[in-house]
Amino acid sequence: MPLKLPELDDRSWKDLTDEGHLLIPTFSPGWTNHNVSDPGITLIELFAYYCESFLYRINQISDANIRSFLKLINGPDWQPGLDTGKDIRDTLLDLRRVHRAVSAEDFESLALEMNAQLGPDAPVSIARAKCLPRRNLEIGRKPSSTDAPGHVSIVIVPDPVEADTEALLRSLKRALEPARLLATRVHVVLPRYLRVAVQVSVTPERHVPNEKVRESVLETIHAFFDPLRGGFEGRGWAFGRNVYVSEIYEVIAKVPGVGSVARISRAGKLQDELIVDPAASDRVRRNRLGELEAIELEPNELVRANFEESQIVFTSGWETRPHDSP
Fold first, then answer.
1. Cα–Cα distance between 172 and 178 in angstroms, integer?
2. Per the domain annotation, does 135 fall within a domain?
3. Pair 29, 119 in one domain
4. Is 63 part of a structural domain of the chain?
5. Range of the domain at 82
């Protein structure tokens, strides 16, 4: 659809003369004869005529004027094509592209545009990108909480997740260098993963085999924590999003064939539904009753299911059989 040029000014000769009449009492109160025979009125009508002519000429923008204006936008080396309309569209589309990274969204957009340079046959691409300003994630064990003015870190999730990304990280950093602001230091890193084990008791519905439910539950947990297609929206687990116990109950309860989900009890003591490495014990958040509410993540972290330490106990009447870790 061609772009419609705006009307720069739609005032007519009558509009201009009427406005001139209204201004007479303001600038010349002693001027009381406003008849067309008055020389002053003649001058107002004459100036209105010339003004209307100039407005008409302004609206008649030639192709030469358009090409000159496009050259000012695109630079002195730009050469017009045969189709002026196409030149206008290409220039407007290029203006909408991000060329300089100022905000966090700019860095993320430029990082994802790297896929166009890699091509469709590249062994690894950038699936997601998260920019953390004033952070240097290349140093220290927990740099996400340390303020680093002048530093910007871009965390990328490759596709596939387990691919070798050393060359990709270097290429992206080189691509972002020309776009950064002066004195800004750019860091490109992979996300940190917090491995979380799930331990709950699952009771299948009546006459539903345990094996069938077991496979569905494990697949659901894996998919829910997936960095590319996890979460409730299926677009990957959000960076820094906490893992809530209530959501674990929700996703498992929705699995076809699951009758109920409950906490595991050992020696008369109820166990936490989520387990993390002891080094991350400070991430555990509990309510006033001491019950586990959530596992907290840092802004540069994603979550992965730890099936090696998970224990999904399946009960069916008198039968109780724990899930054997793969």
1. 11
2. yes
3. no
4. yes
5. 13-96
Instruction: State whether 161 and 280 are in the same domain.
Output: no
Burial 148-187 (b: 16+ CB within 10 A, else e): beebbbbbbbbbebeeebeebbeebeebbeebbeeebebb
Mean pLDDT of 272-286: 91
Distance CA 119, CA 289 (A): 54
Pair 204, 272 in one domain:
yes
Query: Considering 96, 115, 139, which residue would you say is the last residue of a domain?
Result: 96
Q: Over the stretch 135-179, which tens digit does the pLDDT of each residue have?
A: 999 876 565 568 889 999 999 999 999 989 999 999 999 999 999
Phi and psi, residue 176, nearest 5°: -85, -15
Tokens (6 digits) for 63: 């192709």
CA-CA-CA-CA torsion sign (203, 213, 215, 161): negative
What whole-number distance in Å separates Cα of residue 130 and Cα of residue 300?
8
Which tokens sit at 143? Answer: 């740099």
Query: Which residues touch 75 (CB under 8 Å, ≥6 apart)?
Result: none
Query: Once rounded to an integer, what is the mean pLDDT over residues 90-95?
Result: 87
Q: How far apart are the first and last CA of the chain?
A: 58
pLDDT tens digits for range 66-88? 888 899 988 888 888 888 889 99
Closest CA to 137 of 182, 192, 184: 192
pLDDT 10s digits, 221-270: 999 999 999 999 999 999 999 999 999 999 999 999 999 999 998 888 99
Report, as an integer, the average pLDDT of 27-53: 91
The answer to whether residue 3 is domain-embedded is: no
User: pTM for the full model?
Assistant: 0.69
H helix runs in the chain, sequence order: 13-27, 39-59, 63-74, 84-96, 104-118, 166-176, 210-224, 245-253
The residue type of 149 is P
